[in-house]
Design a protein that fits this description.
Blueprint: E1 3-10, H1 22-48, E2 52-58, H2 64-73, E3 78-81, H3 87-99, E4 104-108, H4 117-126, E5 132-136, E6 142-147, H5 165-176, E7 180-182
Parallel strand pairs: 1-2, 1-4, 2-3, 5-7
Antiparallel strand pairs: 4-6, 5-6
């Protein structure tokens, strides 16, 4: 089975990425941490050796961090720009595009240092027997969503960036009859209270 992983990322620039961490880290500190998490997420995905690894970015592909990753990984990493719309519309568009040429598609962000290569491979394996797979976030969202078929109900009219996302997702999965599996919840890094879950050397 062919697997695609799509990593959604904001350019790690001051005032754009991880703005809720600015009170704790400052503008530049928040941007530096965003860049470290970006590189980590891409490297974990590359190490999984899926058939397709895509870095899907906003506002454009020109940020130095994106270009550096593209040079480092060459043909193993496809660099694309996110589609228009809210997060759900952008994710759904990327998912449906990828499902045209791949059997399984994993969607991830860059905010969860605990989302390792091993977890990515476990999520992919879940799709051998389920329609969807998730790695929930401790705060109520999710850090990974994987599919072998599109399910538009999971992406439209969702209150993104709230503690209700995973709960509502489960309700909609049940309503649509989709089967799914979940890995244990992990932390994502959004606010100062999340910083203890960041490797200490990333904050040096």
């Amino acid at each position: 089975m062919s697997t695609a992983i799509i990593i959604f990322a904001k350019a790690p620039q001051a005032g754009l990425a991880k703005t809720r961490l600015v009170p704790a880290l400052g503008l530049q500190g928040a941007a530096r941490l965003a860049e470290k998490m970006l590189f980590h997420a891409v490297h974990q995905a590359i190490n999984a050796c899926f058939e397709h690894t895509e870095l899907c970015v906003t506002p454009d592909t020109q940020h130095n961090a994106f270009q550096t990753l593209a040079r480092q990984h060459g043909k193993r990493l496809r660099l694309t720009r996110q589609q228009e719309g809210d997060l759900g519309q952008r994710m759904y568009g990327a998912l449906t595009d990828a499902l045209q040429t791949h059997d399984y598609v994993l969607l991830v962000g860059t905010d969860a240092p605990a989302l390792t290569t091993d977890l990515l491979l476990q999520a992919r394996d879940t799709l051998n027997s389920k329609d969807a797979c998730f790695v929930p976030a401790i705060d109520g969202g999710y850090t990974l969503a994987g599919f072998k078929q599109a399910c538009p109900a999971l992406f439209h009219n969702m209150p993104w960036s709230t503690p209700d996302v995973m709960h509502i997702t489960r309700q909609r999965l049940l309503a649509t009859g989709c089967t799914w599996g979940e890995q244990p919840a992990i932390n994502d890094i959004d606010e100062a209270r999340d910083l203890p879950h960041v490797p200490a050397e990333w904050l040096a």
